Task: structure prediction
Amino acid sequence: MRNVLVISSSEWPAAALRAALGDDIDELRVIVPAVRQSRLQWLTNADDDAREGANDAASSIADALPSQETEASAGDSDPLLAAEDALCDFAADEVVVVTRPDEEATWLEEGSSEVIARRLRGLKVTRLVVSDSD
Result:
């Protein structure tokens, strides 16, 4: 049995994820942190558009990946908190963190893949960098 948690700030990583994960996934959870928001939106909790976009992206990613059981949703604007929240009720065997290249990253996602990898030392963590233009 293989349970995979995908934390993705990129909206178009399906091809890279299929190549990295293969086809033997039993349970898949896709979380897209709501990172596409300005500092003002974040400070005022005006994140409805960011959450809606993240939810749509999570569904699209999940639909493109093979698994026996799949859940997809938007996550916290902090990618680490989004990962930790998901792991509270999903027993992942591995975590795949997908980020955009530094020049495309938002202020909320900068450095997040390294932080997640350090904090989740007990799990296999794979990091992928995918450009939204790929």
Q: What stands out?
A: Strands lie at 3-8, 27-33, 69-75, 94-99, 124-129. The mean pLDDT is 85. The helical segments are 14-21, 39-43, 48-64, 79-88, 112-119.
